[in-house]
């Protein structure tokens, strides 16, 4: 009940933010589209290039949207109010993460394979790309949220966020791309896929619980 | 029966080169209004944030016997692109209480916000935002209020309303710690002077 009410609130905020909420997706389409056009001679012969481009662009798109994850709430003081409600803070951060994934992760998971298909990717390769993005985008949201929460009190997310987040994203990037590449090469990808699931499980169980105390700590700066 | 809501135990705070307080002890109990007084920069807001748990002292401890605490700082704690009603509902969700529409209407009426109920917070004046923050405090049914300059941006009618509200809250078993640079129009408030050392 509480989760649903908080989720509705977060989605309402995203909806009222208008264009601002969709800028990361426009960025994603522009970057992937630009690569798809300029590298089409490479991409048409080897889908692996496009897979890497889509995955890397997904990371940058995520960074663009994560910067504002807690910023607005910190600016208007609602974050301080939320952290004072110890019983509600976990539900609050979980709904924020789910909302972020709803407005960034899910559209990318759907758009990535569509862009792949439009660029001549095989249907089953596009399907696998979509599947890895489905596992990878929540992990990206979780890891990014942790760094964003640490930086929110400092009021200078942008530049520091990029430097701190990228190393954390490398494992999911490598495993996500590897699964797709091995699938394209018809090789076994079980181990890499299991690593993707392990990262997803670890981040979705530990990070939401850690975010409450981290956000409270970030108020003290 | 008097019960303690919060105790400040021998805290020391020195954010930079200037020591704000050293060995400070305060106890807040049912029905008490504590007024933190002192000039700008003496640490009133810092002490309130420490009491709320938003900041840590360098040493000493805070014991909170009530949870959650109603905190009203310099920021209004209202989402600017949500309406007054949506912000009030959010407070209910946070406290886990069912949103009482009739009660909310009463408070909105009292604070002359009835006509603004469907307006976005960003469309309200600063005084109206302050009034709305107080309605949130009431909706949250917090026992302990920590108020940082609560009369700022309010007109004389609003000031009177807030004064009555604080007295009524403390009369009903609540308590309040209020930071103010000017003397508060609250006769029964206990004063704690935070002079710069």
How would you sum up this structure, described in words?
- The complex is a heterodimer of chains A (221) and B (197).
- Chain A is mainly alpha-helical.
- Chain A has one domain (2-218).
- Chain A is built from ten helices and no strands.
- In chain A, α1 (2-17) packs across α7 (89-118), α4 (47-66) packs parallel to α8 and α8 runs parallel beside α10.
- Chain A is elongated, with a radius of gyration of 18 Å.
- Chain B is α/β, with parallel strands linked by helices.
- Chain B has two domains: 1-69 and 142-161 and 169-197, Rossmann fold; 78-140, no CATH class.
- Chain B has helices spanning 44-52, 84-95, 101-110, 126-140, 156-171; strands at 4-13, 21-29, 33-37, 59-64, 70-72, 144-148, 175-180, 190-193.
- The model of chain B has no long low-confidence stretch (mean pLDDT 91).
- The longest helix of chain B is centred in the last third of the chain and has 16 residues, at 156-171.
- Chain A binds chain B through residues 2, 5-6, 9, 12-13, 16-17, 72-73, 75-78, 80-88, 92, 216, 219-220, and chain B through 49, 52-56, 67-69, 71, 73-82, 86, 89-91, 93-96, 121.
Using brief descriptors, characterize the structure shown:
heterodimer; A: 221 residues; mainly alpha; 86% helix; B: 197 residues; alpha/beta; Rossmann fold; 2 domains; 5-stranded parallel sheet; 3-stranded antiparallel sheet; 5 helices; globular
Strand and helix map with partners:
The complex is a heterodimer of chains A (221) and B (197).
Chain A: H1 2-17, H2 19-38, H3 40-45, H4 47-66, H5 71-76, H6 78-83, H7 89-118, H8 123-151, H9 157-184, H10 190-218
Helix pairs in contact in A: 1-7, 2-4, 2-7, 4-7, 4-8, 4-9, 7-8, 7-10, 8-9, 8-10, 9-10
Chain B: E1 4-13, E2 21-29, E3 33-37, H1 44-52, E4 59-64, E5 70-72, H2 84-95, H3 101-110, H4 126-140, E6 144-148, H5 156-171, E7 175-180, E8 190-193
Parallel strand pairs in B: 3-7, 3-8, 5-6, 6-7
Antiparallel strand pairs in B: 1-2, 1-4
